[in-house]
Amino acid sequence: MKQARTLGFLAATAILLALPAAPSRADETLKLAIGQRGNWDTAITELGQRAGIFKKHGIVLDMLYTSGGGETQQAVISGSVDVGTAAGVMGVLSAFSKGAPVRILGAQATGAADFWYARTNSGINSLKDTDGKTIAYSTNGSSTHSIVLAFIKDFSLKAKPTATGSPSSTLTQVMSGQIDVGWSSPPFGFKQMDEGAIKIIARANDAPLVRGQTIRLVITNPDTIAKRKDALVRFMDAYREAIDYMYGDSPQVLKDYAEFAGVSEAVAKRVRDEFFVKSLLDPDEIKGIDQIVPEAVTLKYTAAPLTKEQLNELIQIPPRKK
Predict the structure, then answer these.
(1) CATH 3.40.190.10 domain locations along the chain
(2) CA–CA dist 219, 203 (Å, integer)
(3) CATH code of domain 115-206
(4) Before 187, cis peptide (omega within 30)?
(5) How far is it, in rounded angstroms, from Cα 239 to Cα 320?
(6) Does residue 23 surpass a pLDDT of 70?
(7) Which CATH class is domain 28-111+213-314?
(8) Does the pTM exceed 0.85?
(9) What percent of the chain clears pLDDT 90, i.e. is strictly above it?
(10) Closest C-alpha among 215, 216, 217, 233 to residue 30
(11) Rounded to whole angstroms, how far apart are CA atoms 265 and 271?
């Protein structure tokens, strides 16, 4: 009888060992809206998910891409998604000041690699040549929208700001003559520049609004914070780790980005090394907030400067783990 009990115990143990190990916690799915598919700085979640970094933190990402920060922001405010990345800082300040349910989880871009261009044969060589011309931005409330408004203010232009959507749709409109000056972000437009079809006439950092200041954000809404705060904390932990991975020694990240963006690995490396220093992606601080708040009033995004108390409510960045 003792031998039978022993054999039964061993058989049960063998069955348990053969079963797959149960996870310590179930993975949580977060829905994301991401402005501009294919940009290096908006590929953090894509590359991090491919590398298994978000999975390691118990997070699965369900990602959709928008035409710009304005659309991303609306998806977050409506509750259609849990998190938005690359939302324009001015648009977020404007929405919050009007009572919209939006909160800041982190910085997405400080400074920018975006550029504005014209057809080589257009006669437009600088922003000074854009009076009476149309100049593109992605969507209302996006960072590119605020940059164009800053160009107009800082350089006393009489250009006509025009929403054109994504870099690819903008390029089509420029080349067909519908728009005079287009906008893009690396690597979009490299091919046309190399062929001599277009030329850069301005860069985002030409605007004082952009230089050294956070222009795009990672955002969420109060309901998600209230119900899924732990998941958001783990998301930001994984987000930071994904950025470290993107600037590490692994050759896989450039292979994955090249495949994702539809470019060569050489172009992928050029985009990262020449246009996107790692500090541009630092999520832990909204830099230049003392300048951004009054600028939002000047550009008519807010009626009055946000108070310290309002900013404390708006900015809820989970602290980095020591």
Answers:
(1) 28-111+213-314, 115-206
(2) 25
(3) 3.40.190.10
(4) yes
(5) 11
(6) no
(7) alpha beta
(8) no
(9) 73
(10) 233
(11) 10
> Residue 260 is encoded by which pair of tokens?
């994702």
170 to each of 46, 110, 189, how far by Cα in Å?
23, 23, 10
User: Distance of CA 91 to CAs 72, 77, 87, 208, Å?
Assistant: 10, 12, 7, 18
Residue with tokens 């009990």: 5
Tokens representing 53?
């970094």
Query: Is the alpha carbon torsion for 14, 17, 19, 25 positive or negative?
Result: positive
Contact 91, 145 (CB under 8 A): yes
Residues in the chain: 322
Pairing, β 83-88 against β 28-35: parallel
pLDDT tens digits for 199-236? 999 998 888 877 889 999 999 999 999 999 999 999 99
Decide if 107 contacts 66 (C-beta within 8 A).
no
User: CA-CA distances (angstroms) from residue 35 to 31, 138, 191, 281?
Assistant: 14, 10, 22, 15
